[in-house]
Write a structure and sequence with these properties.
2 copies of one chain form a homodimer. Chain A has about 190 residues and is mainly alpha-helical. Chain A folds into 2 domains: about 5-65, Tetracycline Repressor, domain 2 (Orthogonal Bundle), CATH 1.10.357; about 70-185, Tetracycline Repressor, domain 2 (Orthogonal Bundle). Chain A has helices at about 5-25, 35-40, 55-65, 80-90, 95-100, 105-110, 120-140, 145-165, 170-185. Chain A is globular, with a radius of gyration of 18 Å. Chain A starts with a helix and ends with a helix. The first copy, chain A, binds a DNA duplex (30 and 30 nucleotides) through helix 1.
Chain lengths: ~190, ~190
DNA sequence: TTTAATATATGACCTTTATCATATATTAAA
DNA sequence: TTTAATATATGATAAAGGTCATATATTAAA
C-alpha cells in the first residue's frame, strides 16, 4: 500500500485552503484550475483525483472556510462575551481583513455567489445565518439586542468590507471601517 | 450622409442600458459579447463599431448607470427632504431592487469590480461617494447626522441588498430588508 | 433613383481553459 | 529490493468566447 492514509487528505486540505484564498481574491472565473493547483505546488492533472470539477472545489472550499472561520472559534475563557464580540468586530473591520487575511466569504464572495449553483448559495446562507446566531448569542448574555439590530449590524459589516475592497484610497477605507466599527458597537449595546 | 446623427447614439444607449442590466445580473465574466448584443436585437459584429472592447463597455455602462441612477434624481418639490429620504430607503431596500429592477451597482457589482481595471474602481468609488453625499445633504436639512452615521448606513443598505441576492428564502430576505430599513431610518434621525 | 457613407451581420481566427486519457513517479508493504 | 497501489504529471481534446476582416444592408442627400 503506497502513501499513508493522511497524505491525500493533507493535499486535499492544502488545495481547499489555497483555493479559498484564490477564489475570494479573484472570483470563480478569475482563477483557472491550473492556477489553483500550481498555487500549492501541483499541476492540473492531479486535480481530478481530488475533486470532480472546478465548481465542486468552489463549493467545498466554501464549506471548508466556513468550518474554520474565526467567527466559529470558541471564545477564550478569560474574557467576557462583550469583550470577545468587540474583538470579533475589530478583526472583521480591519485592514488586514480587507486585504485578504482570513477573508470572510460573506463579504468577499457576495456577488460572486449569485452566478454559482444552488449548493453554493445554500452554503452561503448557512454561513450567513451562523454569523447572525453567533453575534446574537454573545449579545444575549449582557444586553438585549433584538433581531433587527443583529441583522442590520451583519449587513453593515459585510457591506463595509465588500465596499472597502473596491476603494483604492486607504484613507477613505480607514474612515469607513472606523465608522462602522463605532456604529456597530453602539447598536450592539456599547461594545 | 446615411443615418441620422441620433441613430448610433440611440443604439449605443440601448447597448449601455442592456449591458448594465446583464452585467449586474451575471457579472463581467458571466456575460458574453454575443449575449450583450443579442439582448438588444443586434449581433456581436456591430459591437466594435460602438465600443473598443468588453471591458470598455463594462466601464461605460457603469458610468451610464451612475448618471441615470435613482439616487441622483432630484427631489420632487411637494415632499420634504426627510420624506424623500424615506422613499429612497424604501426603494433601495425593496424586493424589486433585489430582483434587479434598476439595480444599484454598489450592491450588485461589489465583488465583481475587484477584478476589473482601475477605471472601474474609480467609477465605483465616485458612485459610492455620491451616495454618501446625497444622503448627507438630505439629512442636514432636518437633523444633524455625523459622518459615522452616514457611512454606516450606506454600508448597511448596500450590504443588505448584496446579501439578499444570494439568499433564496424570500422570508429571510424580507426580514433582512425590513430590519435594515428600520435601523437605517433610526440612525438617520427617525426617517 | 442613385450614391456614398455608415451601421450591422457573417465568417474566421486564435487564445484560453476545463476536462480527460494516459504515462510516470512515489511509497508502504511483502 | 520488488511490487502493487495510489498520487501526480503530461499531452491532447474540444468547447467557448473575444476580436477582427470582410461582406451586406440601410438611409439621407444629390
Amino acid at each position: 500500500m503506497p502513501y499513508t492514509k493522511e497524505h491525500k487528505d493533507k493535499t486535499r486540505k492544502r488545495i481547499l485552503q489555497s483555493a479559498f484564498q484564490l477564489f475570494t481574491a479573484k472570483g470563480f472565473d478569475g482563477v483557472t484550475v491550473n492556477e489553483l493547483m500550481e498555487n500549492c505546488g501541483l499541476t492540473r492533472g492531479a486535480f481530478y483525483a481530488h475533486f470532480s470539477g472546478k465548481s465542486a472545489l468552489y463549493n467545498e472550499s466554501l464549506k471548508f472556510a466556513a468550518s474554520s472561520s474565526k467567527l466559529s472559534e470558541l471564545k477564550p475563557n478569560n474574557i467576557s462575551d462583550k469583550a470577545w464580540l468587540g474583538q470579533l468586530l475589530d478583526g472583521y473591520l480591519s485592514l488586514n481583513h480587507v486585504n485578504g487575511i482570513r477573508p470572510c466569504p460573506l463579504a468577499f464572495l457576495a456577488t460572486d455567489i449569485v452566478t454559482q449553483d444552488q449548493e453554493a448559495k445554500e452554503t452561503y446562507t448557512r454561513v450567513y445565518e451562523g454569523m447572525n446566531k453567533t453575534i446574537m448569542d454573545y449579545t444575549q448574555t449582557y444586553s438585549s439586542c433584538n433581531e433587527n439590530e443583529i441583522l442590520s449590524v451583519t449587513s453593515m459589516i459585510i457591506g463595509a468590507v465588500a465596499i472597502s475592497r473596491t476603494l483604492k484610497d486607504q484613507k477613505t477605507v480607514s474612515t469607513l471601517l472606523v465608522s462602522c466599527r463605532l456604529e456597530a458597537g453602539r447598536i450592539l449595546g456599547g461594545v
